[in-house]
Design a protein that fits this description.
Layout: H1 4-12, H2 16-50, E1 68-76, H3 93-106, E2 119-128, H4 132-139, E3 145-149, H5 161-166, E4 192-195, E5 199-201, H6 206-214, E6 246-250, E7 264-271, H7 275-287, E8 290-291, E9 295-296, H8 310-321, E10 326-328, E11 381-383, H9 401-424, H10 435-441, H11 448-451
Parallel strand pairs: 1-2, 1-4, 2-3, 6-10
Antiparallel strand pairs: 4-7, 5-11, 6-7, 8-9
Length: 472
């Protein structure tokens, strides 16, 4: 006989081992689902990342992560005289460095989606040993990584007597200008941009980075890069590797009739870092084959201003030793200095003379573009050379071609300074039309709507210096 009471009791009391097995099975199932979904999304993310560039110009604007981090480097070869009241550093290293960095920030992934840039940035300062005392206190608080560097090749090791004896007095900074070459050692980044302190970034440079990282577009286009003279991005016949390792502009202000090669403008260089390239530069300097009547290697890369250092050795490397791997950019778009393209003065907005950039390009002799008339909306970077430094409080308000664009460039510099101080540093915003409010907050009343309260009067003595947070 079957005990019915016993059977009812069995249905009410479950086997503990059976419950544990059920829970383990459910747990394994749940973990499996999680793993499957994780790898699904991970693989989708990788595919999206790998498809950000179908060619050199397309970009995935829906991505949430930067493509890469670009290194931006400046070089400080010496300390400004008279506490920075004059000279290339103007009001001091910190003013140029602070506003330059913020202009980079505004045009980077850090300011996405406003910037529409997919590249992040990191700031470096290549500081000569003799400049540490003035550079580090200014640059450390601004977020620059200070790298103390000596000249890559001591003067005593330069074999060529002419270069060894003459280079200390060449250009702005003599042999210290070679400190810039240390930018090639930042190999933890795919791209390095070396800029002078008196430059300003107005638009993202993603197109340059796309081409340098992914190569030139396969369809033969320029990938949106504004190449000088409208030339192709890759020369014909193309090089074996078709790899672009540098973008630069040339300084035609230093060009003269009969000159074989124009130098690069030393305030702007986009480069592919490489220890091999760095060491090759060192070998060139150490050999010191710079001739008084023929420049580097006797090939016509000099003599001109700065030709013994950065402005001469860079074109010698990319034009002669490694042709096709460096690209000259349109200097009205990149590194615009608002310079006169012709060799005679401009009077009443009427240009005269021959095109300086036509000395080496007879086919372009009368077709040079006047960068002074270029729309500021199209300018990617500017360099305050002929326009003078923004921190000298020069109005540049005469109605002539020589000053119109300069005033716009200066206006942008002060606008970016204001954005840095109010948006990033949290300082008081003011109505520029309220003079008393501006004076109380910033102290300047000279052309307030232009200088935004940072100039007390005309000239460098009227400039109100940047005060870094936490510093008196």
């Amino acid at each position: 006989m079957v005990d019915l009471q016993s059977r009812r009791g069995a249905t009410q009391h479950h086997d503990p081992n059976h419950i544990i097995l059920l829970l383990k099975g459910f747990g394994i199932f749940l973990i499996s689902v999680i793993i499957v979904f994780y790898y699904y999304f991970l693989s989708s993310s990788i595919l999206r990342s790998g498809n950000k560039h179908d060619d050199g110009s397309s970009r995935n604007m829906s991505g949430k992560h930067p493509i890469a981090t670009v290194a931006y480097a400046i070089t400080v070869s010496g300390c400004p005289k008279n506490n920075g009241d004059s000279g290339d550093f103007g009001a001091g290293i910190k003013d140029g460095a602070a506003i330059l960095k913020h202009s980079i920030h505004l045009n980077s992934f850090q300011n996405y989606p406003q910037s529409q840039s997919l590249y992040d940035y990191k700031m470096y300062a290549l500081v000569h040993l003799e400049a540490e005392s003035c550079a580090r206190p200014a640059l450390d608080p601004l977020g620059y990584e200070v790298l103390l560097r000596d000249v890559p090749v001591p003067l005593a090791e330069i074999e060529g007597q002419y270069l060894r004896e003459k280079v200390p007095s060449n250009g702005c900074c003599g042999e210290k200008e070679f400190v810039k070459l240390h930018a090639y050692t930042l190999i933890q980044h795919p791209v390095v941009v070396h800029l002078d302190l008196d430059t300003l970034v107005l638009k993202p440079m993603d197109r340059l980075y796309d081409v340098m990282i992914n190569g030139a577009p396969k369809d033969g286009s320029n990938g949106g890069v504004d190449v000088a003279f409208g030339d192709p991005l890759i020369p014909t016949p193309a090089t074996d590797v078709n790899q672009i390792n540098a973008f630069f502009t040339r300084d035609y202000n230093m060009a003269h009739l009969g000159m074989k090669h124009a130098g690069v403008q030393g305030g702007f260089l986009v480069l592919r870092p490489s220890l091999d390239v760095y060491n090759e530069f060192l070998s060139i300097i150490r050999k010191g084959d710079f001739r008084s009547n023929g420049g580097w290697g006797g090939m016509g890369f000099g003599p001109f201003y700065g030709s013994m250092t950065f402005q001469g050795i860079v074109p010698y490397f990319y034009d002669h030793l490694h042709p096709g791997t460096g690209v000259e950019l349109n200097r009205c778009i990149y590194n615009n200095m608002a310079d006169n393209p012709r060799d005679k003065p401009t009077k009443n907005d009427v240009v005269s003379g021959s095109c300086r950039d036509g000395y080496n390009r007879p086919d372009k002799n009368d077709e040079c573009e006047d960068c002074r008339s270029h729309p500021i909306e199209d300018v990617v970077t500017t360099h305050f050379t002929l326009c003078q430094k923004p921190w000298e409080c020069l109005p540049q308000d005469a109605d002539r071609i020589q000053e119109r664009l300069c005033r716009k460039f200066h206006h942008e510099w002060y606008r970016i300074r204001e954005d840095l101080e109010t948006t990033l540093w949290g300082r008081e915003k003011v109505q520029l039309t309220n003079k008393e409010e501006v004076l109380k907050a910033r102290g300047g009343e000279f052309q307030i709507e232009h200088f935004r309260g940072y100039c007390k009067g005309h000239g460098k003595r009227g400039y109100i210096q940047v005060v870094i947070p936490g510093q008196a």
